[in-house]
Design a protein that fits this description.
Blueprint lengths: L6 E8 L2 E5 L6 E8 L2 E8 L3 E11 L7 E4 L9 E3 L16 H7 L14 E5 L1 E6 L2 E7 L6 E7 L4 E7 L4 E2 L3 E11 L1 H11 L11 E5 L1 H4 L5 H15 L5 E4 L21 H11 L3 E6 L3 E3 L3 H5 L22 E3 L5 H17 L4 E4 L15 H16 L3 E4 L4 H4 L5 E3 L24 H10 L9 E3 L17 H14 L2 E4 L8 H11 L5 E7 L4 E8 L2 E8 L5 E5 L3
Helix pairs in contact: 7-8, 11-12
């Protein structure tokens, strides 16, 4: 495909009247330019216009032997390669049958503003068609005004580059599309994309390896447990680890971040940070800055800070904590509150890194003449301002909105405590907790690692017991550790490492050692099986594994 094959269609309303155009008219000037594999479309209204849709489409017949890459909306969303015969899943039965279930389960995804269907695929921010080793890549290099969604309509033979302009008012000239197209090898096209992207961040963050508290205790943490596991990590991993992160459970309620649960942490959070520093580790802390539990103090004392829908009802941000409200980042009081939270975390408590979660909540509802993409961009700008030169690990964030703002980022959903999917994975959304989905994303989002941030594939498990046992065989534990090590640069466990035997200690130390190889190709050979071609120490190797049972092999293929 060449950009000369595409046709622009723009729908907008002015004074309540809907108009459709593919070029300039009396209300809006449209300037489309194609040059050096790049397409831009600038629009300049004569007055205020409300955009309805913006699409740039071309005929395209997808071949049976090629794949289309569907980049998921946010950190947790399934991202994969699809053949024409495959199906990209949306909300599943029975969740999709009931309005409230669709609303709360779908809040974390793109289900309200993108199209799903048979023979229809979509991708957020960027995509590619792969034919063997040749890639035809398309990507937006600026998502600050509106999200870009690429649609591959196999049934009708149409490829469309669409902007999510719902709720977007335009009063002055702006660049609506800025799209690049590259043809070449995998690393070649992604190197070019990273170089072209408008928002860049040069970070000095090192590869991270260490501990996070969530997957063994969830919210049931306290000072004794944290210090015990800190000592265990230092004893077993020593300086092979460099970070120790406190997850959810230190605060009195989600949203009340400065109100530390004094029964759990009688000496406060600075004492914990100081203890972490005494071991030579980076001190990390989890915060969900735009979330508030129903019974949180902030929700009860400041109901005017909560995001409302068009009917004035409080917006529910998702199913976590049995549902939670969203803080409206458009309100100056909310932005000031967020700044105060981070001043406490960094200046008073002394933490070095924050893992910021459920960030998609900032853009659930388009408002004040702004699209979802603009709201998310402004929210990320606020967070980066608050974090300053400390480290920011993003999670639950629309992926391209994180580019240029985070130092590290989750690339998949939470890993389940069982290797085999739970029953509910088959009947809910594409952001659900799943080891299968997490590994899939770890493989298929590898191109982001060290181009835009450090990839965080989430935890691996080695423990046998613990507060929350991990239902994995030892072979499955080793597989997850190996995949995370090969494809990610943020390696976490949630175990009390002091309980490890010699075998588990050896697996941990090997996983915490940065992967020194080069992946040349990674793809699915069946619905449950993967093949990774890579080079290590001058040898060509093939790593194959199955997510159905965890079987794997790693063999040298030359010499």
């Amino acid at each position: 495909m060449n950009f000369s094959d595409f046709r622009l269609t723009l729908a907008y309303s002015v004074n309540g009247e809907r108009r459709v155009t593919s070029s300039s008219d009396e209300n809006i000037a449209v300037d489309c330019v194609v040059y050096d594999g790049r397409f831009t479309a600038k629009i300049a209204p004569t007055g205020k216009v409300r955009l309805i849709s913006a699409e740039f489409s071309a005929p395209y017949a997808m071949r049976d032997d090629e794949v289309f890459f569907g980049a998921g909306y946010q950190s947790w969303t399934v991202s994969s390669e699809y053949y024409a015969r495959d199906r990209q899943k949306g909300l599943l039965f029975p969740v999709n049958l009931f309005a409230f279930a669709r609303k709360i389960s779908g809040a974390s995804g793109d289900y309200s503003f993108t199209k799903y269907g048979k023979n229809l695929f979509h991708s957020h921010g960027y995509t590619y068609f792969r034919r063997g080793d040749e890639m035809e890549f398309f990507g937006s290099v600026d998502e600050s005004r509106a999200f870009t969604v690429f649609y591959n309509d196999v049934k009708n033979g149409v490829f469309t580059i669409s902007k999510d302009v719902e709720g977007m008012d335009v009063t002055t000239e702006c660049t609506l599309f800025d799209i690049v197209r590259y043809v070449g090898g995998y690393d070649e096209v992604f190197d070019k994309y990273a170089a072209a992207y408008v928002f860049k961040r040069k970070s000095n963050i090192p590869d991270l390896a260490g501990y996070t508290s969530w997957y063994n205790y969830f919210q049931n943490i306290d000072e004794n447990v944290i210090l015990r596991d800190l000592n265990g990590m230092a004893k077993i991993a020593g300086d092979r680890a460099n970070i120790f992160q406190i997850d959810d459970g230190y605060e009195s309620r989600v949203g009340d971040w400065s109100d530390v649960d004094k029964k759990k942490f009688p000496h406060g959070m600075k004492y914990i940070a100081d203890s972490i520093h005494s071991k030579g580790y980076i001190a990390g802390l989890w915060v969900a800055p735009f979330a508030a539990e129903y019974k949180s103090r902030i929700a009860e004392e400041h109901p005017d800070w909560l995001l409302r829908d068009e009917k004035g009802k409080k917006v529910i941000g998702g199913v976590a904590w049995k549902g939670f409200y969203v803080l409206d980042t458009e309100k100056p009081e909310v932005r000031d509150y967020v700044r105060r939270v981070f001043a406490t975390v960094f200046d008073e408590w002394g933490y070095d890194m924050v893992k910021l979660d459920f960030l998609y909540a900032a853009c659930i509802v388009p408002r004040n003449g702004k699209s979802r993409g603009q709201l998310m961009h402004e929210a990320m700008t606020l967070l980066r301002e608050c974090v300053g030169d400390k480290y920011l690990l993003g999670c639950g964030v629309p992926m391209t909105s994180s580019f240029g703002f985070v130092d590290a980022c989750r690339t998949g959903c939470d890993v389940e405590l069982s290797f085999k999917d739970r029953y509910y994975v088959r009947c809910t959304n594409q952001e659900i907790i799943s080891a299968v989905h997490a590994v899939n994303n770890t493989v298929f989002r590898r191109h982001l690692n060290k181009r835009f941030f450090l990839n965080d594939p989430d935890v691996f498990f080695l423990r046998d017991g613990g507060a929350k046992p991990a239902v994995y065989t030892m072979a499955q534990k080793k597989l997850l550790a190996k995949v995370n090590n090969m494809f990610g640069s943020v390696l976490f466990v949630s175990d009390n490492a002091a309980e490890y035997d010699a075998e588990k200690t050896a697996v941990l130390l090997e996983a915490f050692r940065p992967f020194g190889g080069k992946i040349t190709r990674a793809y699915k050979t069946s619905a449950d099986s993967y093949r990774v071609d890579y080079e290590l120490d001058g040898d060509k190797r093939v790593f194959e594994f199955e997510m159905k049972n965890g079987n794997y092999s790693d063999k040298k293929v030359n010499g």
